[in-house]
């Protein structure tokens, strides 16, 4: 393939997340440059960025390799998500634009429609776009960047089971948007915290045993009473 030089980092990251490059495998500049149809300069810059993000490590005598995260490192990402996503929603309630609201409401409508049809692949993509837009609406480039990196890393390390009741999940998304639209930062934070805790219970590590963290989250959850979220 041939891609713009500035997109090399995104392309390599996407391929790492998708499992094209296995954990621990070498990433040689020459082969990457040939794969993406660019010179070695943007590849070298991309590998530096991906190392800073934690997707790549440099090893003595081996050079750049795909990182091999531990179970503890993976669990830490879920803990960070429970802290940062509610903060992002709270900020979005204060700083969102009408354009953000329009996109969020459109995604909720589509998500609810697909949930009724039971199309899990569409729902996964729509959910990603929803959380990406919500992160952008927080009005903080630094927080948006951190949330985006978290989503990429979690998608790399975890497989996510489809929710038993996807319609309920999209009802929660709708409740978050309602709070953001009203400018109610406390409510947006609270609903997002509950939604995030529920979502984490469906995560399973792609490596190692991996079930303990999700089980602890499931057992610690408080049930979400969606009618009460509408008050």
Automatic annotation (TrEMBL):
InterPro entries: GntR_C, TF_FadR/GntR_C, Tscrpt_reg_HTH_GntR, WH-like_DNA-bd_sf, WH_DNA-bd_sf. It comes from the Bacteria. Residues 2-69 form the HTH gntR-type domain. GO terms for molecular function: DNA binding; DNA-binding transcription factor activity. The keyword Transport does not apply. Gene3D superfamilies: GntR ligand-binding domain-like (1.20.120.530), Winged helix-like DNA-binding domain superfamily/Winged helix DNA-binding domain (1.10.10.10). Residues 211-231 are annotated as: Disordered. Pfam families: FCD, GntR. The keyword DNA-binding applies. CDD domains: WHTH_GntR (cd07377). Keywords: DNA-binding, Transcription, Transcription regulation. PANTHER family: GLUCONATE OPERON TRANSCRIPTIONAL REPRESSOR, TRANSCRIPTIONAL REGULATOR, GNTR FAMILY. This is GntR family transcriptional regulator.
């Amino acid at each position: 393939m041939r891609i713009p030089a500035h997109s090399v980092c995104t392309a390599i990251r996407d391929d790492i997340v998708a499992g094209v490059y296995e954990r621990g495998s070498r990433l040689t500049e020459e082969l990457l440059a040939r794969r993406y149809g660019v010179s070695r300069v943007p590849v070298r810059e991309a590998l530096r960025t991906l190392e800073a993000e934690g997707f790549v490590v440099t090893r003595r005598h081996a050079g750049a390799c795909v990182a091999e995260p531990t179970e503890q490192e993976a669990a830490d990402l879920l803990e960070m998500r429970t802290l940062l996503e509610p903060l992002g929603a709270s900020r979005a309630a204060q700083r969102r634009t009408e354009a953000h609201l329009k996109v969020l409401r459109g995604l909720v409508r589509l998500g609810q429609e697909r949930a009724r049809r039971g199309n899990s692949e569409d729902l996964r993509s729509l959910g990603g776009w929803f959380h990406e837009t919500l992160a952008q609406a927080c009005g903080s480039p630094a927080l948006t960047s951190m949330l985006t990196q978290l989503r990429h890393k979690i998608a790399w390390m975890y497989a996510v089971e489809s929710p038993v009741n996807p319609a309920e999940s999209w009802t929660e998304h709708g409740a978050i948007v309602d709070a953001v639209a009203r400018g109610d930062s406390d409510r947006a934070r609270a609903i997002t915290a509950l939604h995030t805790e529920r979502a984490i219970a469906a995560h399973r590590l792609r490596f190692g045993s991996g079930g303990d963290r999700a089980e602890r989250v499931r057992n610690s959850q408080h049930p979400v009473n969606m009618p009460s979220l509408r008050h």
